[in-house]
Design goal:
The complex is a heterodimer of chains A (about 210) and B (about 10).
Chain A (H helix, E strand, L loop, with lengths): L2 H24 L7 H14 L10 H24 L14 H13 L6 H15 L2 H10 L1 E2 L1 H28 L4 H23 L7 E2 L3
Antiparallel strand pairs in A: 1-2
Helix pairs in contact in A: 1-3, 1-7, 2-3, 2-5, 4-5, 5-8, 7-8
Chain B lengths: L10
Classes of the chains: A mainly alpha (about 210), B little secondary structure (about 10).
């Protein structure tokens, strides 16, 4: 494992825990898209079914279990515990426009036509667009709390670092996985606009708000 | 190669 990959995983973990803590401490999930969080829970579940079939390392197993557990906890906080604070009126992205095309694509473009491989591929495609309901919500309300911005930034940095990891692996190991790379590129591009706003506004101590 | 391997990435 190279440094980019490790820092990418840490950034991903930081994002997930940051969101959990934000909701827990403020006792509120205002401004958070429950739909994006459900999509991420689906992504982790579909991808990490190999927990039951394949042992890779203690690190790998622990991270997968933590990601899944945190993800389901977040969904539970939004739709059950702090349901009264959930901003459903602004969380109106139609997720079927993401789930259906990525599911069809996973059937058509995959490495191997087996159930686990198709589910893995589906999770890669779905992850690349799963943040759209959240970004849509931010654009609809025109603003995001600073801590939500930090969450989005850490989440975007994670896949960006994975891109460097893949360049590294291609160069030093001759390994590449085109499905992951293309989806990872799409995922990173979706964050670019947000990265710009984050760097120009949030890092200068301003709240992220979009021009009306 | 781009073939299916044990998935060591997260």
């Amino acid at each position: 494992m190279n440094l980019f990959r490790f820092l990418g995983d840490l950034s991903h973990l930081l994002a997930i825990i940051l969101l959990l803590l934000k909701i827990w401490k403020s006792r509120s999930c205002a401004g958070i898209s429950g739909k994006s969080q459900v999509l991420f829970a689906v992504v982790f579940t579909a991808r990490y079914l190999d927990l039951f079939t394949n042992y890779i390392s203690l690190y790998n197993t622990c991270m997968k279990v933590v990601y899944i557990a945190c993800s389901f906890t977040t969904v539970w906080l939004i739709y059950s515990k702090f349901k009264a604070t959930y901003d459903g009126n602004h969380d109106t992205f139609r997720v079927e426009f993401l789930v259906v095309p990525t599911a069809i694509l996973a059937f058509l473009v995959n490495h191997d036509f087996t159930p686990l491989e198709i589910l893995w591929t589906f999770s890669i495609y779905l992850e690349s667009v799963a943040i759209l309901p959240q970004l849509f919500m931010v654009s609809k309300t025109g603003e995001a709390e600073t801590i939500t911005s930090h969450y989005l930034f850490a989440l975007g940095v994670y896949r960006t670092l994975y891109l460097f990891n893949w360049i590294w692996r291609y160069h030093f190991e001759g390994f590449f996985d085109l499905i992951a790379i293309v989806a990872g590129l799409v995922q990173t591009v979706l964050y670019c606009d947000f990265f710009y706003l984050y760097i120009t506004k949030v890092l200068k101590g301003k709240k992220l708000s979009l021009p009306a | 190669d781009s073939e299916s391997k044990p998935k060591d990435e997260l």
